[in-house]
Amino acid sequence: MTVFSTSETIAQAVETFYLDREGKPELIPIGLPPIDRELGGLGPRACGILAAATGVGKSSAMLTSMLANRTKVGAVSVEDGPDVVGARLISALSGVDSMRIRRKDLTEEELERITKITKNPKLKNMYFSYPTAGTVDDIEKAVDDLCAKGCRMVWLDYLQKVRGHRDDRRHEVAETFTRFQRAVARGGAAGMAISQFRRLGDGEKIPQIYHLKESGDLENEARLIVLAHKHREYGRVRFRVGKSTYGGEHITFDYKRDASGTLREVSFLDYANDEDF
Q1: CA-CA distances (angstroms) from residue 107 to 79, 95, 111, 180?
Q2: Is the dihedral of CA 261, 265, 269, 274 positive or negative?
Q3: What string of pLDDT tens digits covers the 277 residues of the chain?
Q4: Angle, CA 170 vertex, CA 169 and CA 175 arms, to 5°
Q5: What is the largest CA-CA distance in the chain?
């Protein structure tokens, strides 16, 4: 283990943020534009958490962020297989509702739109691994494989689904996040892990960091924690930065579901027209 002097620590920060040369620092975008615009993303080997209750749209938000990301991005999907993820991607890119895709209740025009999305350039920068109900060893191997493909941002969907390596659930979830971080760091990437909230109590409407389900040390280890919850109107999801070691805890933004069921960032025009929000 290397011991750094204070001067060496400062020198490392100067190098990390390119303060001694031209060009921007190597920050990896998350794919959530309001956060990327203000914070620039995460540094290599850093990990954050996106937390929401069941049914809010955690996986949908992940896919939306992957499609919005300008760098190569990967996802470890422990819960959903390629059929579910593929249908959501088809919906997001074609505008066709995923339930209609499932029933094959499609018009000729919609089938043509779906056929064309295979040529979408965004697909070249996205990779997936599906260790369904996998162990923590499977997760680490999946992250290694995605980083070997050149992925700079890696998502884990989701922490509480990984089981079998600890008897105590709190420490099991914490260890999963730690080993996910280790694998991401090994690949020189950044990571975002999806986490559930525990059930909110009576009168609790807006989740806080301490609502992270079986959180263990998640709130201490994560560089960034983004909290999401349904906000009044059905389909509208509010995201806010609950913790950031870089600042920006004031960042709040909304997504809503479009006709295909895909989460999209709410525009300024939407806010202007939404008198009841």
Answers
A1: 30, 13, 6, 42
A2: positive
A3: 678 888 888 887 777 776 767 766 689 999 999 999 999 999 999 999 999 888 888 999 999 999 999 999 999 999 999 999 998 999 999 999 888 888 888 899 999 988 888 888 888 899 999 998 789 999 999 999 999 999 999 999 999 888 776 777 778 888 999 999 999 999 999 999 999 887 766 556 788 888 887 766 788 889 999 999 987 655 689 999 999 998 999 999 999 988 888 898 887 555 555 554 4
A4: 95
A5: 67
| Beta bridge mates, 193 | 49, 156
| CB crowding 228-244: b at 16 or more within 10 Å, else e | bbbeeeeebbbbbbbbb
Homologous superfamily of domain range 28-81+123-273: P-loop containing nucleotide triphosphate hydrolases (3.40.50.300)
Q: Tokens 């909290």, residue?
A: 227
For the record, the structure tokens of 72 come out as 């190569």
Where do the domains of the chain lie? 28-81+123-273
**How is 74-104 classified by DSSP, letter by letter?**
EEEESS--HHHHHHHHHHHHH---HHHHHHT
Q: What DSSP letter does each residue of 140-183 carry, written as one string?
A: HHHHHHHHHTT-SEEEEE-GGG--SS-SSHHHHHHHHHHHHHHH
Count CB neighbours of 265 within 10 A.
Answer: 16
Tracing tokens 């493909």 back to the chain, one arrives at: 149
pTM of the model: 0.87
Taking each helix axis as running N to C, give the angle between helix 169-186 and helix 136-148, from 0 to 180 degrees, rounded to the nearest 10: 20
